[in-house]
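Lab notebook, bench 4. Still working through the backlog of constructs that have no structural model yet. Next entry is a single chain of 87 residues. Request: give me the structure tokens for it.
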Amino acid sequence: ITVSAKMIGEWAEVIVTDTGVGIPKEKLSKLFDLGEKTSTAGTRGEAGTGLGLNLCKDLVEKHGGEISVDSSEGKGTSIHFTLPTAP
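Model written out:
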């Protein structure tokens, strides 16, 4: 997992990237839908609920930021989000 950040005006853009199993395209479009099961087993078979990403989305949007996800099956996933740096 790699975490990077950069300043864009008064916003911080954070990018979290992994080289895991990736997310299938059909699940990517439903990633933030609480009614859908989008979690898959990780590279070592570890389980997840998929709720953590939705909690992050709520936090980011509550502060006026944006979140997006890019993924390729077998190559990994990048999550980009922005947060204000000043109140």
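Notes after review: The longest helix spans residues 51-62. The two ends are 29 Å apart (CA to CA). Flag for follow-up if needed.
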